[in-house]
Amino acid sequence: MYQYHCLNPIAEVGLKNFDGNYAKTDNIANADAVLVRSATMHDMELPESVCVIGRAGAGVNNIPLGKCSEQGIAVFNTPGANANGVKEMVLAGLLLASRDIIGGHYWVRSERQNEELEQLAEKQKKAFAGNEIMGRKLGVIGLGAIGILVANAAAALGMEVYGYDPYISVNAAWKLSRDVKHITDVKDIYRECDYITLHVPLMDSTKGMIDSSALAEMKSSAVLLNFARGPLVDSKALVEALRTNRIRKYVTDFPTADIASMKNAIVFPHLGASTEESEDNCAIMAVQEIKDYLENGNIHNSVNYPNCDMGVCKYAMRVTIIHRNIPNMLTKFAAAFGDLGINIERMSNVTKGEYGYVIIDLANKADDTLIDTIREIKGVLKVRVMK
Description:
This protein has helices at 12-15, 65-70, 83-98, 101-110, 117-124, 145-156, 170-175, 186-192, 212-217, 235-243, 257-260, 276-296, 329-339, 368-375; strands at residues 2-6, 22-24, 33-36, 52-55, 74-76, 137-141, 160-164, 181-183, 195-198, 223-226, 249-252, 265-267, 317-324, 344-352, 355-362, 380-386. The protein is an alpha/beta fold. It folds into three domains: 1-82 and 273-304, NAD(P)-binding Rossmann-like Domain (Rossmann fold), CATH 3.40.50; 85-96 and 132-267, Rossmann fold (3-Layer(aba) Sandwich); 310-387, Alpha-Beta Plaits, CATH 3.30.70. Helix 3 crosses helix 6.
């Protein structure tokens, strides 16, 4: 029986997909799998028993990927599961930044006991006037699951949409509306667009990508939206840009004291994926990924190891091996099985950066001695057996 541990509350609609072969444990030391949302794991010591971490969401900056990779722990996220919830928040951000809806609401609240409110409203409403988004230029930086939904929805609303993503996948490109114009130089978006929305992952290469230089390229009337990750934007440069009216507004889902205190910042408490539907979708997807990995060794949506799928094992035994991506590893694995006269029926080997992953289906069952021999091969990080 497999055991799983939840570091955050995980939607029950997802957890109920664990069948009788799974049990929830409150002690991570006994867990084969860990489910997490926002809990920070960087200072945690993960036990040897943990084989997989399922992140019920897209961002994985709360998970120590390097340490997990070296321990042979596969880390999964759930790309696209919360995409619609975030998309709707971005659209709300566009509308709130275009017209002073928030200011108008608070004015009405402040005058709610005034018997002449209706008459006053007709005079006051011009103070909250704004512009429509139809016909305005929107630049979408990052065309993953969320970026595509935002781009397509904005195009359907009549915006002139420009998309930038040098790494867009073929599958993503097929989903993109033909009305979205492809941009090859991100500076063109900075210079031309009235609204700019960020939808890229947080990595060393993207941290602080919106810095003083990028902000200097933007129109003084530009609105910057960030529902991806807070550190994509250099906060000091942004505060200065808002203070000097270098840009018109900043809309974000990542509150900090310095940004929240700025007059032209619209800041939310990380609400993008905080919908019942998004949380359910992420939980269901994370559980499916964990089960397929533990039971079949298949990898989908791992952020630290390569994807690999050999379906369900139809032979005597399946062995999976996580190893360093160094020469002659396959030769050593094949030799170990061959020496005991065990035939390899099917095998798949894939690599991603420094790591490789092998699924091997065997015609005969291998005993523990052979499996220990595989574990002792230099460069092997983890071996699992599915019988």
